[in-house]
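Entry 12.
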Amino acid sequence: MTRAIQLCTLLLALLAVPSHAHDALPIALSLDQTGEREYSLRARFPPTFADDETPQSGVAAPCEIHRQRATTQVIQCPDASTPPALTLTYPGPAGNAPILLRLSYVDGQRQTLVSPAGTSRIALPDRQTRSGVFSGYFRSGLSHIFGGADHLLFLVCLMLIAQRPVRIAWTVTGFTLGHALTISLAALGLAMVDAGAVEVLIALSIVFAAAEIARGRKDSLTWRKPSLVAALFGLLHGLGFAGALNEIGLPQGEVPVALLAFNLGIETGQLAFVAALMLLAGAAHWLALHFWPSPERIPAPALAAWPIGIIASLWFFARLHAL
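Predicted 3D structure (tokens):
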């Protein structure tokens, strides 16, 4: 089974090559009511969008853009009602960046909405429900785990180190507990770190794990206590997730619900990824037994460790340069 995971991992590593450090950072929209019939709309796009692929923000009728100042659009509505929806027009690929919308009204009401990547029309509700908060932040958690190739490759490394299903379960659990703790602390403002430095260290953690696999030294702490090491690195990776959550923000009055939903979204995506990789590995193992002329000659773990380490090293230097 382990060798089959290694072969599947090689394909996953190659697919991760074009990934960027900020794949899952959101498109951030801020709509502030500045008068009875006037609103200010600001848009910020992640660096994964090229200049000629940056979406154009707008507003649905009967409201319209009155004027534009740099990245801010002034919206006017014919009456005192809220704009029915905001729009995004994509000149190129929509990418995998979720959409965050913060709403602020003159009466003090504030809302935070999260929409899936590629959404072109964001309806503005009269009020935000608890179920809407939960579903939006749950989807955002899913988007961030599946959009973060670095986190997924680190999970692959943990699986290659743990090897056996029970050890894999304990190791992934340790990773989960570690990053759930720092996500919560950072989101509540109890742990403040530089997001760029965290990105660098996350890439370095993958290099470390890949090096451990390539060396194959079973007497190190990583091999003997993978769940403990996974929990420690989970603290670091949690800060990376928290950076994304800070970009989204937490809705006033629904902080526990949003925080729980975001964590559950990440864990659901993480478990789905591990389960899919295990199924893929099982299928590869069966094919190897039936069609591989010499199963004992299937390449060693370094087959997976080296491409992962090289990709993570490229990320490390790119992120270090971007600091």
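Annotation: The chain is about 55% helix and 15% strand. The longest helix spans residues 255-291.
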